[in-house]
Design a protein that fits this description.
The protein has about 300 residues and is α/β, with parallel strands linked by helices. The protein has helices spanning about 1-15, 15-25, 25-40, 55-85, 95-110, 165-170, 180, 200-205, 220-230, 245, 275-295; strands spanning about 45-50, 50-55, 90-95, 115-120, 135-140, 150-160, 190, 215-220, 235-240, 250-255, 260-270. The strands form three sheets. Strands 3, 4, 5, 6, 9, 10 and 11 form a seven-stranded mixed beta sheet that branches. A two-stranded antiparallel sheet has the order 1-2. Strands 7-8 form a two-stranded parallel sheet.
């Protein structure tokens, strides 16, 4: 590895003495490292013209590759040092989860981490959450993200919900049969086709064999909730995700029965040396318990 670093410096300077000065080693040591790379790879990397080095086409390709790798390493180190200097802690989750679950708990989190500057980023692809500057993320799935530690927060659990005004106009909706629910617009998300619980799961759990569920389709749960609280349909609500809406009396639960998928939400991180993960998990779980209690209160 050292020999490759020395070769990259020699390739940039085209001069052994200049490369040695940058690396604080003698020009003869630079020459030995370059010779080592050529011997071990079997490649001719330079042609020599006195003190001047000229890269071969092969040498240029290798130098470019090493330079790109070292540049990425330098960028990551700079980002990590800057983050540590500013005491920034970055949290990542989906936009829906941030709006409906994280933000009601954000004040308590900020108080717990009062010595840090919190930064929240959102994205729908978890690939974006693998970046080195993200301290931890909250993800939905089976808990298997190679290269990361995942701690389970809560399971996915769904049940029908609507606005209080809709239930007031149609009291027959409470603990209604699937056939009764199907008479109303069943709001759903586009992602139901690829992940998570969907209306078909809940209806099947109730023993109903029904045609394809039709109704308005929304790209995000947050948009769906706008239509829901306007009393223009029924949706599947997800325990913990919609708890704050129960507390605010903006939604009501229509059934005592739930359906579970076996998947759940996890706190996911690569390393926890500088992050108080146990305290964060405890806060999130306490927050969940507290909201559950509030939602259950008459």
């Amino acid at each position: 590895m050292n020999a490759l670093v020395v070769f990259e410096a020699a390739a940039r300077h085209r001069n052994l003495t200049a490369a040695g000065a940058e690396l604080c080693i003698a020009a003869s040591a630079v020459s030995r490292h370059v010779a080592t790379v050529e011997r071990e790879t079997g490649l001719t990397l330079f042609t020599r013209n006195g003190n001047r080095l000229e890269l071969t086409a092969t040498g240029r390709r290798l130098a470019d590759a090493i330079g790109a790798g070292l540049g990425h390493v330098r960028d990551v180190l700079s980002s990590l040092k800057q983050r540590d200097a500013n005491r920034i802690l970055t949290i990542a989750c989906s936009h829906d989860l941030a709006q409906n679950w994280l933000m009601p708990r954000f004040r308590d989190l900020a108080e717990l981490l009062s010595d840090r500057q919190l930064r929240v980023i959102t994205a729908e692809s978890y690939e974006n959450f693998d970046a080195s500057d993200i301290d931890f993320s909250v993800r939905f799935g089976d808990g298997n993200w190679p290269g990361f530690t995942a701690i389970h927060l809560f399971a996915e659990e769904g049940f029908p919900i609507c606005a209080p005004a809709l239930l007031e106009r149609h009291p027959e909706l409470y603990n209604a049969s699937p056939q009764t629910l199907m008479k109303f617009p069943l709001l759903k998300m586009a992602s139901e086709e690829t992940m998570g619980l969907k209306w078909a799961d809940w209806l099947r759990d109730q023993g109903a064999t029904l045609p394809v569920v039709t109704g308005p389709v929304f790209p995000t749960f947050s948009l769906l909730l706008l239509e829901l609280v306007a009393a223009r349909g029924i949706a599947l609500g997800y325990r913990h995700i919609v708890d704050q809406l129960f507390v605010d009396r903006r939604i009501v639960r229509l059934s005592d029965r739930s359906v579970r998928s076996g998947l759940g939400f996890y706190v996911v991180f690569r390393e926890a040396e500088s992050i108080p993960i146990p305290l964060i998990i405890e806060l999130f779980r306490k927050g969940i318990d507290a909201v559950d209690a509030s939602a259950a209160a008459p």
